[in-house]
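Ops channel
N.P.: pipeline sanity check, posting one input/output pair.
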């Protein structure tokens, strides 16, 4: 058993696409804060989860490049490989081994209730009704097994390192609950009821979901077909200004933070508050009003705040991406450290299940 006071943090991110502002505020920035607040006995693991990316079709050459780009982005935002174990998930076969063992502890009913799975079925239903899908909406077999079972792999990612805490957004809480359930199920079935896997606690990220710039009812997403809906960490200043200029807000002169009635305006205020903590969202609203108010001023102020933060990140990302030798060294070092911890867990798990 791990010492009671020890905190082990695990989190992961898919390598597909350049991280956008929502990724940065919802996960990456929080990772740096967690890293920098660690105590000497704590451990932190960050994985670029390429196996999860395979739940949808991928271009091999693009995926290969994007995984290195994601590693560069993680390092550029302030993650230090000496403080945090950073590694590629596919370098660690122990993830898949534990996922299979946990899959044998997981009921189909639990996976059927996952909101992500139900969401995919709903999207299939919608596409079918609009004539955009070539498969029957009721035919769940049209979706692949990996998409159905990836929450089990996610649980294995977490439990393999005996994680005590997992930083997640609100949309991932259900998956963490599955990891907690599987920890307890494994303990009952294979550990004689002892607490071998401690159910991990969630750390809700301080920044709520960053919304699409073009549709404030949806979160900012890599999958959106509207490129102007998101700000990428690699966007040039002109592109950032243009995307913010086209952001959905409203015509009221006085700016106020009201996430329910004024979602678009509040989204920009939330972005300002998350990037510059000198004032909260209400304080940023007053700051804008003191400068004349209105959506035009709000968008200009938001652009100033975004560019002030992104300039250093972009410069560092460009430098790191140009040093492939350094990236490969970080990946090897991270895999070696992660493998030592993962294999220790799997030796014990194999013994408990009878291998």
């Amino acid at each position: 058993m791990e010492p009671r006071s020890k905190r082990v943090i695990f989190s992961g991110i898919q390598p597909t696409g350049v991280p956008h502002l929502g990724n940065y505020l919802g996960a990456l920035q929080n990772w740096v804060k967690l890293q920098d607040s660690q105590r000497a006995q704590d451990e932190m693991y960050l994985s670029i989860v390429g196996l999860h990316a395979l739940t949808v079709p991928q271009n091999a050459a693009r995926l290969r490049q994007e995984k290195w780009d994601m590693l560069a982005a993680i390092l550029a935002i302030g993650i230090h490989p000496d403080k945090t174990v950073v590694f590629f998930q596919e370098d660690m076969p122990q993830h898949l081994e534990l996922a299979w063992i946990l899959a044998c502890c997981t009921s189909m009913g639990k996976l059927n209730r996952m909101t992500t799975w139900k969401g995919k079925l709903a999207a299939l239903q919608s596409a079918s009704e609009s004539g955009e899908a070539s498969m029957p909406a009721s035919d769940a077999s049209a979706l692949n097994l990996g998409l159905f079972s990836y929450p089990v792999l996610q649980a294995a990612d977490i439990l393999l390192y005996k994680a005590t805490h997992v930083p997640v957004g609100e949309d991932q809480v259900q998956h963490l609950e599955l990891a907690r359930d599987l920890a307890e199920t494994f303990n009952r079935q294979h550990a004689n009821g002892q607490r071998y896997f401690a159910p991990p606690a969630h750390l809700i990220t301080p920044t709520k979901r960053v919304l699409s710039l073009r549709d404030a009812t949806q979160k900012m997403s890599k999958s959106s077909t509207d490129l102007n809906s998101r700000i990428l960490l690699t966007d040039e200043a002109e592109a950032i200004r243009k995307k913010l200029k086209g952001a959905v807000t409203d015509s009221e002169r006085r700016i106020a933070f009201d996430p329910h009635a004024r979602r678009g305006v509040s989204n920009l205020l939330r972005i300002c508050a998350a990037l510059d903590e000198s004032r909260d969202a209400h304080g940023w609203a007053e700051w804008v009003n003191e400068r004349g108010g209105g959506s035009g001023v709000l968008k200009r102020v938001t652009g100033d705040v975004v560019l002030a933060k992104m300039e250093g990140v972009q410069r560092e990302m460009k430098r790191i991406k140009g040093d492939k030798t350094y990236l490969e060294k970080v990946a090897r070092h991270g895999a070696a450290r992660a493998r030592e911890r993962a294999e220790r867990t799997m030796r014990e798990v194999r013994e408990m299940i009878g291998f």
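N.P.: looks fine end to end. The two ends are 21 Å apart (CA to CA).
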